[in-house]
Amino acid sequence: MRCALLDDFQGAGPTAADWSPLAGRVEVVSFPDHTDDEDVLAARLADFDIVITLRERVPFPASLLDRLPRLRLLVASGMRNSVIDYAAATRNGVTVCGTASSSTPPVELTWALLLGLARGLVQESTALRDGGPWQQTVGADLHGRRLGLLGLGKIGSRVAQIGLAFGMEVVACSRNLTKERAEAAGVLLAPSKEELLASSDFVSVHLALGERTRGLIGAAELALMRPTAYLVNTSRAAIVDQPALLEALHAGRIAGAGIDVFDVEPLPAAHPLRTAPRLLATPHLGYVTRANYATYYGEAVEDIQAFLDGSPVRVLS
User: Fold this and answer.
1) What is the reported pLDDT for 218?
2) What positions carry a catalytic annotation?
3) What stretches in the chain show pLDDT beneath 70?
4) 296 contacts 271 by C-beta, under 8 angstroms
5) What number does CATH give the domain 104-281?
């Protein structure tokens, strides 16, 4: 059997786990480039029985699954994937399995972005290396400032703990968040999204993408933020209206933004976000750590082995 590793940008897949349990049973082929062109994918994957896909980067709609008659097992990193048509997979005889995924890496990256913005690390490091001005920015303090969290789930609550450790006042808001749950996490419950945006020095997004959260932060919401405030999004790109964010950054309506997720990934070379002012951007690194990759690929090996032995595990569909 043949197994395709999609979007293996760093070439890490073959070494992130022990693939020896599949020796002699499965040939593993890594693809370092990305494509979501359905014709290209249909041709590329035509000769594969197994596909491992990272996060929600490559959609598997019915129209693609119908064109992959040889495919029998689709392994997705994580236990939730919104871009796989599970009904179509079942109809085509494709088993879909998942893996565990740690929430620690996106928490850590959230703080890397927030701290980088607050202390102007990109500008200062670039100036130092290029012989530019010495000390050109004045850092934003964290201690005593307000951190507003849109979402207080598994990731948001851990971001809150770190904010509290910095001596920040932390407030949170989401549709189902109660005062009791907020207090249990040591944070204040914001009466509304609008009040949170208007009163916070730093705003960080930690919500799942759905119909209620798509476009949750648009031009009107960004206009509520202080001109000295920063926005961080390591969650889902579509929660923040990216054209509205671009306009706010160019107009200086907010002090800056730290973004790890984009409407189109990988981000095209000519995309305006690549050159936007006041933006600290990373190429969707939230989940990209050695430990997380070891989990993704290690459990993918287990998924494949169990499937071949007739007892699939971590079945999503």
Assistant:
1) 98
2) 236, 265, 284
3) none
4) no
5) 3.40.50.720
